[in-house]
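Minutes, project check-in

Agenda point 3 was the complex the collaborators sent over. CS summarized: two entities, 888 residues total, and the question is how they sit relative to each other. Sequences were read into the notes so everyone works from the same version.
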Amino acid sequence: MSAHGHAPTITLEEATLPKDSILRKAPLLLAIVGIIGLALAYVTGGGDDGHHKQFYYSYVTSLMYWLSIALGGLFFVLCHHGSRAGWSTVVRRIAENFMITLPLFALLAVPLIIGMHDLFHWSHADAVANDKILQAKTWWLNSGGFIIRVIVVGVVWTIMSVTFYRWSTRQDEEGGDELSHKMRWAAPLGFLFFALSATVAAIDWMMSLDPHWYSTIFGVYYFASCVMMIMVAISLASMFLQRLGLLEKAITAEHYHDLGKLAFGFVVFWAYIGFSQYFLIWYANIPEETMWYAHRSTGGWEWVSLALAVFHFIVPFLFLMSRHIKRKKFTYAIGCLILAFAHYIDVFWIIQPTMEHFGHSHFSFHVADILAFVGIGGLFLAVFVWRTASKALVPIKDPRLAESLAHENF
Amino acid sequence: MATVKDTLDPIKGRAPLVTSGATFKEITDAVAAPLEADNYRAWWVCFLVAVFFLGIFLVSVSYLIWEGTGIWGLNNPVGWGWAIVNFVFWVGIGHAGTLISAVLFLFRQDWRTSINRYAEAMTIFAVICALMFPGIHVGRIWVIYWVFPIPNQMDMWPNFMSPLLWDVFAVSTYFTVSLLFWYVGLIPDFATMRDRSKTKARKIAYGIFALGWRGSMRHWLNYERTYLILAALATPLVLSVHTIVSFDFAVSNVYGWHTTIFPPYFVAGAIFSGFAMVLTLIIPARKIFKLEHIVTTKHLENMAKIILLTGSLVGYAYGMEFFIAMYSGNQYEQFAFANRMFGDYAWAYWIMVSCNVITPQFFWFKKMRRNVVVLFVLSIFVNIGMWFERFVITMSLSADPLPSAHGYFSPTIWDITTLIGSFGLFFTLFFLFIRFIPMVAIAEVKTVLPQADPHWHPEDEGAGHSDEAGSQEVTAHG
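CS then shared the predicted structure for the full assembly.
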């Protein structure tokens, strides 16, 4: 609000990755690391029976981890336009670069179809034949429907992310109000498609791993993680760029403070949603529902559950509460890393206990988990860095850029 | 390339929140006018009508206490009727105020300054109405203190495992914090009213509530800190109250009640209904009291957008409940939802869906969001829809899993008089508010005027001189 007199500005040169930057070579390197990682995960995650169950479980765990940042990026962009935000303009391009990894995830979802039998109990005809509950669910949980939904979700994500990305980068060259107006106009509609597609992905790719279990809040649960993770990802990416000497004056403690407040808010929101789900199921005590938590309170999983409560709520809640912590890069980075770690516990805790259906699944951490994490992460970051290097680092001609550069918290 | 022109929603820069370039003094005068008018005839008429309905409420409640809950249409299996419906309805309405004052404050939404006082007052009165229902429906009202964990010689304690008990704590905490928040915001304005007073009695009365406010820098510093801390404390309360209200239903093994999306779904619904009620009340008020330059079309449009957002969230929850009922393969769950749509209460269900899901869709269009008449009419539809939502949920009781135990609930005349009467209570308080308390936060609105910016230079208009002691120091917190 106090953008009078000596308003800070940023030139295109200051907001572009230098020609000789090492980051320009990184995408290729990251992609190679990614592919090797996935290949090794496939090899190490294979069983004696020729199946690759461990690989697919490690794969979907990492997929949901990195996907949350991409979906979070889309949500951040939609929110920015939908709420007429000003402060976040300077970090919006970073969010857009995360968002534009969504077409990659449309491709990365294909192995879910290939490994369907290793992942999804409901895809086995013989299992369904002996299970009344699964029979009643075949209208949704069937291979054909699953494949169609993977395609539809992938197409929706691709169209949305590419459209918003194109409009935003076109404004870098053309300037003017027209494109801002378009993005604002489309954002509210985008929320509808975002909500439905993210919910379908969360239900199909995670919830249906335990095909008997159901929870109406599940889509919201995953959404909470997505928003938290995009705040973390933007913050860490900004810090990284600033270490390279970029955007040093553009992104200030004020922006970190705001991102930190939102990360804090959404970790609390996640805890609220997670607790509501747990509490209502525990209280009503219906076997179909409580089994899901029962699986996660035995066989070593009880420690993972505890770690989730500690690292996904108690520690970040206490740590990130102070404004000083959020405004100092070093301490805030620690907070972000805690959240990034906690989110991995979260997806691991949701997905991996379902590996042995209706059996006793013991907690174990496989080398394929690490390799798949590196693999998908490598590909994800390859796209992110590639886009970062090829366009300006901030929406250089956005009409609200000046407001964002001069942003101050009260 | 054509440029897009919309003065209310500019692409570049920000539109002024208060239009017509009002000065500080003009703002004070405009807000204080209803409190200092010479002729109160119209106000008396409205107030007495409200008191008449309050009388109906008191008669209904007296008869209830005399005769017991048998005067209501309760039966077996529907042992929980309009009392809970009305309770949830009023608590829901009481959600917009704290959202506006706390959450929008933390999100730096400066437009809240024009409407927060009004919405908070509505919140407090709605919560008072809500608290009436659990209070009166317990049967033996003379032992209502048993809901509090007071040590006693009988060694009797309330059931701490019951969400109904948590309600007592949640709603009373919410009420206390909302009241404090409201009062803290009012202190500078009470001082303004004190300093404008022409009579001794007024001066003393406003003076007591102003707590010796002099508008010094130290006062403002403490005020701003208190306000920020209260906002931070009130924000989780916006979520917690309706979460616990949703637990009242969701912890039970009743089909249609036990579903994990209830907490956020109830919160979204509460904000939805709260904003609708703010619109219903503020649209006539801004016209009658000539506050259209303070509560502008843009303010109404923003509220319409929140209604569209929360209405869509409610729609998502309806869809999700239905989808998961189908997905679960659980035939009882499926029956519960089919029964809502096509059973005895299908009429109520479809009223609910049309009012809550279809009505807000009109707000996709800018023309609708900025049309005062459309806003007013649709906001009333939302209010109706949200009452029916709670009714539809509660009536899950009528379709017991055992078909022989099905029953149909019909309200008696006393159910109806209690509901109508509760509006009497609400409006009695509301008319008192309008008459005695500034309905716009004078000091806060001044902070969003261009003159409040420390860098502002009065080059074109010679406006912006300070007026009363209560509002001299204006810090730009936005």
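Noted in discussion: The longest helix of chain A spans residues 143-174.
Follow-up: revisit at the next meeting once the mutant set is ready.
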